[in-house]
Every structure is written in C-alpha cells, then in structure tokens.
C-alpha cells in the first residue's frame, strides 16, 4: 500500500515537473517574441534603422510557440471541437468516441512526425537568410510538438480509461 502511494506521489511530481517545464518553454518563447518585436519596432521607428533579423526571428519563435502551445492546449482539452452530434450520445458512448478521437489524433501525429523527418533532413544544409541558423532547427518544432501533443493525448487516454474503469458497473 505504501509503495503504491509513494509511486503515485512520484508520478505526480514527475508530471508536475513536466508541465512546469513545458509551460516555462512556452513563456520563454512568448517572452522572446515580445522582446524581439519591441526591439525591432524601436530600431525601425525610433532609430530609423530596421533590424534585418527581427521579423525572421519572430516568425521562427512563433512557429515553435504554436507547437508547444498546442501541447498545452491538448493538456487542457481546449482545442476547438464540434460536438453537436456527440452530445446526443449516451455518456458511455461519449467516452468511447473520445478514446477513438484520441486514437485518431495519435495516428495523425505519427504520420506528421514521420513526414517531418524527411523535411528536417532536406533542410539541414539550408540556412535562414537573416539569422543564419539551419532551417532544420525551425522544422524541428514539428516532431517536438508532435511528441508533446502525443504525450498529452496518451495522458488523456489513460485518465479516461481509468475513469471508465472506476465508473463501470460491477
């Protein structure tokens, strides 16, 4: 009994650290975007000397923020959903449809992850114009984001299955 409680506490600490880390990365990306934009605006309109890298850096930070943010949104089940039909289902059927939906999301993420490998490989020798970083670093946001979203989807599946098992008639 004690080892079960300790194990649950350790898992809780692990997932809390994971969530804090992903959230911190999102905040850092957003903060970077704000800083780069502010500096770019200042240089362009106050000093009349536009920074050639500011717009490009903003774009790449935004790409990364989109994928990291999508994982956070998945964690909170806040993605847009059209559930008009699903709401008419019985609660038990809704649970199964939700599991099927998460399964479809995982398949889609797997396909995108797999396809991104080739894109990263092809762009690994191409450098960005203004910031001179490898384009593969930009495209790396895709498999990283897919992995983070998949982790959140798997967590939601596990939570839903546990809830279904607890609520099942005995």
Write a brief caption for the model.
With 170 residues, the chain is an all-alpha fold. It is built from five helices and no strands.
The level of helicity is over 70%
Distance between the termini: 23 Å
Low-confidence stretches: none
Beta strands, count: 0
The structural class is: mainly alpha
Sequence of secondary-structure elements: HHHHH
Largest sheet: none
Rg, Cα atoms, Å: 21 Å
Rounded mean pLDDT score: 91
How many distinct domains?
A: 1
Spatial shape: elongated
What is the strand and helix layout of this fold?
Elements: H1 2-46, H2 54-75, H3 91-123, H4 135-139, H5 141-167
Helix pairs in contact: 1-2, 2-5, 3-5
Task: Tell me about this structure.
With 170 residues, the protein is mostly helical. It has one domain (2-167). Helices cover 78% and strands 0% of the residues. Helix 1 (2-46) packs antiparallel against helix 2 and helix 2 (54-75) runs parallel beside helix 5. The model has no long low-confidence stretch (mean pLDDT 91).
